[in-house]
Design goal:
The protein is mainly β. The chain has a five-stranded antiparallel β-sheet, with no helix packed on it. Strands 8, 9, 10 and 11 form a four-stranded antiparallel β-sheet that branches. 0% of the residues lie in helices and 45% in strands. Bound molecules: beta-L-arabinofuranose.
Length: 323
């Protein structure tokens, strides 16, 4: 594991080469994207103790090819929302013996001091539709080491009622202890209960009915209301629905993040950390950025008096430091 401090007040000009682009390892600017030394995509947040961890994929595609090139996943941690520490790569395709490539979106959840990192990637043997599958790696620490203790995928193209593109896992552990695994793309969302051990399915795969859903489901809760945010259409906006339970029924509430310049995807996570709510997403704003070369961003997420999410105001400055 490699650790390096991403202090955005530093003036370092060290460069790392990814394909044909050379981007600064550390930036002289504060703000979005919050990681500038590499391309980072599909962020998902996790708060543990006094730290916010943001787990990301890693875009390494060059500027001319037309598909995602992704082999591994990282985490970035912060206590103050300004200084981020890089961890990783913490997990890669090679850590899953049953997989052959395409390290797509992921989500790490904590339960009873263990960390369960759900990932989507291409299965090497099972292909009925697009061949994507969802697996889980487990660790005693939010920064690993993570291990595929199951040794096989939880969801594949052969899972009854799975979708054509089994990507974008997100896990929510409800107040009663029941954990749910959500996923989906190309307009089809699914969920299935997880057993208490977090590594086995508990029952049948259920269909999620959410208006304008395209991909990237993510659940959070405020008060008694459950919020299901997701990418809509393609190229994607971020839209959301609310419901009285983790399984809906879902009432459509509208757009919270508009289309992104240069990024066709819009993949979000929502988290409360030290009294503030944050919208975690990617854009393509780094020099050399693009559809397959995305970057982690953080902005504030706010609610109105009725608990509805206000449209996200994307900034170049990111969010204020937490003292
Ligand atoms: O990064 C690859 C795929 O692009 C993700 O799985 C989707 O959510 C979209 O962001």
């Amino acid at each position: 594991m490699m650790n390096s401090l991403f202090s955005k007040t530093l003036l370092s000009v060290a460069c790392v080469s990814f394909g044909s682009v050379c981007v600064a390892e550390k930036s002289d600017r504060r703000g979005n994207p919050v990681v500038t030394g590499m391309f980072t995509a599909d962020p998902s947040p996790l708060v543990y103790e006094d730290t916010l961890y943001i787990y990301t994929g890693h875009d390494i595609q060059n500027e001319t090819e037309r598909f995602f090139k992704m082999h591994d996943w990282y985490a970035f941690s912060t206590q103050d929302m300004v200084n981020y520490e890089k961890h990783g790569p913490l997990l890669s395709v090679d850590d899953f013996a049953w997989a052959k490539g395409d390290a797509f979106a992921s989500h790490c959840a904590e339960r009873d001091g263990k960390f369960y990192w759900y990932v989507s990637l291409r299965h090497k043997d099972v292909r009925v539709n697009e061949g994507f599958a969802i697996g889980v790696a487990v660790s005693d620490s939010p920064t690993g080491p993570f291990k595929d203790v199951v040794g096989e995928a939880l969801i594949t193209d052969e899972t009854p009622n799975s979708v054509v593109l089994n990507i974008d896992p997100a896990v929510y552990v409800d107040d009663d202890g029941q954990a749910y695994l959500y996923w989906g793309s190309w307009g089809e969302a699914r969920y299935v209960k997880l057993k208490e051990n977090m590594i086995e399915l508990d029952g049948e795969v259920q269909t999620v009915e959410a208006h304008n859903f395209f991909e990237a489901p993510f659940i959070h809760k405020l008060g008694e209301t459950y919020y299901l945010t997701y990418a809509s259409h393609y190229p994607s906006t971020t839209e959301y629905s609310t419901g009285p339970s983790a399984t809906g029924p879902w009432t459509y509430r509208g757009v919270i993040n508009d289309l992104l310049p240069k990024s066709e995807t819009n993949h979000q996570g929502v988290v409360e950390f030290k009294g503030n709510w944050y919208f975690i997403y990617h854009n393509a704003a780094l020099p050399g950025g693009g559809v397959y070369r995305r970057s982690l961003c953080v902005d504030l997420l706010e609610y109105d008096e009725e608990g509805l999410i206000k449209k996200v105001v994307r900034t170049d400055t990111s969010v204020p430091a937490i003292e």
